[in-house]
Amino acid sequence: MASVDSFDVVKIMVLGDAAVGKTSLIRRFKEEKFDGHSVPTVTPVFYSKRIQIQDQDVQIQIWESPRALGELSAAFLGKVHAVVVMFNVMESESYESIDKWIKAIKDCGQDRAPVMLVGHKVDFPSQRVVSEEMIIKKAKEHGLRYLEASARDGTNADKVFHTLVEECLATGRFEASVSNSKASSSSSSTTRCIVQ
Known about the structure:
CATH superfamily: P-loop containing nucleotide triphosphate hydrolases
Helix content: 25-40%
Radius of gyration: 16 Å
Number of strands: 8
CATH topology: Rossmann fold
Structural class: alpha/beta
Order of helices and strands: EHEEHEHHEHEHEE
């Protein structure tokens, strides 16, 4: 268990096509509220949240990648402990991009990183075009965990990140006992990194 003045760090990258709701789901988890007016992400964005899980004090650092995995995003992907691959169940294009994102993960040497496949925007069942059967087949094909989520109503917003953190802690994929002084540069607010 981490001491009072230290904590373990788990770094997670969220990947997916534009407009699948990456920002909305992360902010639902971080701020416990829904923002339906998110602007498109054009550079990598960083979020941070401290939680207590399995009797450990953990800081989750979440990197959201834009649609195009640029040089800077790829560099971060190579250093994270776990990955979320997100798609929108209301349109097929982002579902068809899953293979592309999985390839990017492998190309960055993250073959052993825990990866969560997340079908987002499940709160509009009448508009759904990607069936659960299709998704389960895809998840099995790549050996991935799968969850359905909604930033709008909060479905599984916490579970997505908590599940990955628990797996990282169980397998030793985290930075242990980082002191507050060492982490002083990691703001809990959102910061943008500019791709040169």
